[in-house]
Amino acid sequence: MPAEQDVGALAARYGLAAPAPQQLEALLAVLTEDPLAPTTIGAAHALDDHLADSLVALELEPVRDATTIADLGSGAGLPGLPLAIALPEAAMHLVESSKRKCEFLDRAVRACELGNVEVVHARIEEWAASVDLVTARALAPLEVVVEYAAPLLRIGGTLVVWRGQREPEREAAAEKAAEIVGIEVGEILAVRPFPAARNRHLHLMSKVMETPARFPRRPGIAMKRPLSSAKP
User: Fold this and answer.
1) In sequence order, which residues have a C-beta less than 8 Å from that of residue 220 and are 6 or more positions away?
2) pLDDT per residue as tens, the chain (232 positions)
3) Are the C-beta atoms of 69 and 132 separated by less than 8 Å?
């Protein structure tokens, strides 16, 4: 099936009107044709593993309703760029510490003609914001993502984390971290962004209390001394 028909079907699945299908086409092209694209998935699987996997979050009401979004460790712009295309009224911030990846993100934003995207070259711990929604895919252990996200979310905001197979130990660690930073762990939804997808989950969490003033900790500390190892 020609790629444009695949993209058209994906756009139709989520009710995305013009110019979203054309923008998704442009994004697919830059992801698969830019020699410096920070992704290892081949062109044959890019639509499923890049675009469909990102857009499956549109099944969630907090994602569809978000007006300010931070995509942490954005890398190749996933899920941030597909969601920015799908949600043109939302302000999307792609937070990435690698200068090379930020340069790619800038090229992708121009190729897709997106006016609602800001590329943020910064360590997550050194960037301040108050957003409705934080997204993270292939970033860090779940408990670390929770710590990164909490200071950036407003009260009532939502964290959505893309994960594969369920990991009970990681989930327990994330729940412990969440209690410390004012996050409430919610549903873990099994999703199927494309027919062949297996073991795909979206973890939903909500900001319910102010995050203590000692957060964010200095860059690197969340990975070196995760909150799950802290003494009660």
Assistant:
1) none
2) 334 448 999 999 999 999 999 999 999 999 999 999 998 787 778 999 999 999 999 999 999 999 999 999 999 999 999 999 999 999 999 999 999 999 999 999 999 999 999 999 999 999 999 999 999 998 999 999 999 999 999 999 999 999 999 999 999 999 999 999 999 999 999 999 999 999 999 999 999 999 999 999 999 999 999 998 765 4
3) yes
On the 0-12 / 13-18 / 19+ scale of CB atoms within 10 A, 91 is middle
CA-wise closest residue to 79 among 156, 98, 59: 59
List Cα–Cα distances, 89 to 22, 28, 175, in angstroms: 17, 21, 32
Token digits of residue 146: 């929770």
Measured distance CA(41)–CA(34) in Å, rounded: 13
Angle in degrees, CA 84, 90, 94, rounded to 5: 50
Distances (CA, A) of 70 to 63, 105, 119, 124, 136: 11, 14, 10, 10, 9
State pTM to two decimals.
0.94
Angle value at C-alpha 57, between 26 and 54, nearest 5 degrees: 35
Q: Are 48 and 133 in contact (CB under 8 A)?
A: no
Nearest partner of 205 among 14, 96, 60, 95, judged by Cα: 60
Are 208 and 182 contacting, i.e. CB atoms less than 8 angstroms apart? Answer: yes
CATH of 3-229, one of 3.40.50.150, 3.40.50.700, 3.40.630.30, 3.40.605.10: 3.40.50.150
Question: Which residue ranges make up each domain of the chain?
Answer: 3-229
